[in-house]
């Protein structure tokens, strides 16, 4: 941290205002029709320009340079990890794996209540591997397809999917960006995330159990839809699992950044796509052709650039001393348990990524149980409101006019009960970690 605080300095105050203006633009992305990466990229650049000026004037340019290099390294690891993970998800989508899953569930002949539980359970289980956003979109498509004639089922089913996807992502380092940040920072090791399995399950089960009785009892109309995956679909899924295993091995056994293992896994996909394309060309079978570079191009660059802007902007505010002030107010003034619960609840309004990165940058002295607590609360707190997580925002767009902010708000009290219950469950079953 800097030897001189810049909290009351003109550069610090200006930086804080820039960040707040940029974040307001992010919140109103759909209203002003400006992609969220644009304002935060501008904010990050301006904040660090002000840091450069202020630190040079105080003779601390080397300190600012060192911290900037550290943040570039932190972002680089996150970027490469996500680049590979999203590319694999895109490849699975291109091979029609998610369409096959959707068609089979639609044709299963179950009633709405059974499908409500099944879609939620699958969302909970898949989120740990696919991430909460992708899982919500996949299972949301299933819910919408099943409930074509039942808007009530779609509404309640989408609430369940959002809660389940966020909860399922909380006990896996690959489940969402916040858990990935915690894992890469070394605060929680791979196997230690599973201590959050029961609390995360409670977070979904309680609101799902309440909402279950509001789901229609009848069956949806049978739909005879046959969807087959493209050649190589299973191979892509197997290689994705192998890639995750490689990343884990690089971190746990070789003590190297997991992003390096992910890049090796990208090589697996490249070679598989080469094999499929060569074989398909010889057989004149265009369905076999898999262009892995095209799947890289389809990566959501707005999201990756947004992460860059947020990480640098929040890191800049930390350099100026604001995160130190926040840490003293929350973790010293209120205590870590209260602070972690409040930050988790705030993630229903403020994106959980800057909140988690701020906590990691503050790096308060906490027990292992407290680091697991903030991982849990930041992961599931966003479920309280539909705008509190990427999963909820994405589903509002996918089920436009049916799953809305107000329809989710109707069940926010039940989701809040799940949030509170998950915290008490963690404090109880993991008491030895505090």
Largest sheet: none
Structural class: mainly alpha
**Low-pLDDT segments:** none
* Overall body shape: globular
Q: Alpha-carbon distance between the termini?
A: 27 Å
List the helices and strands in order.
HHHHHHHHHHHHHHHHHHHHH
Number of strands: 0
Based on the model shown, name its key terms.
434 residues, mainly alpha, 21 helices
Task: Please sum up the structure shown.
The protein is an all-alpha fold and about 425 residues long.
Structure description:
The protein is mostly helical and 434 residues long. The chain has one domain. The chain contains 21 helices and no strands.
Secondary structure layout plus pairing:
Blueprint: H1 10-27, H2 29-32, H3 37-57, H4 61-94, H5 97-106, H6 112-130, H7 132-146, H8 151-169, H9 177-184, H10 197-212, H11 233-252, H12 258-283, H13 292-297, H14 301-320, H15 322-332, H16 336-346, H17 352-362, H18 368-380, H19 390-398, H20 405-409, H21 412-429
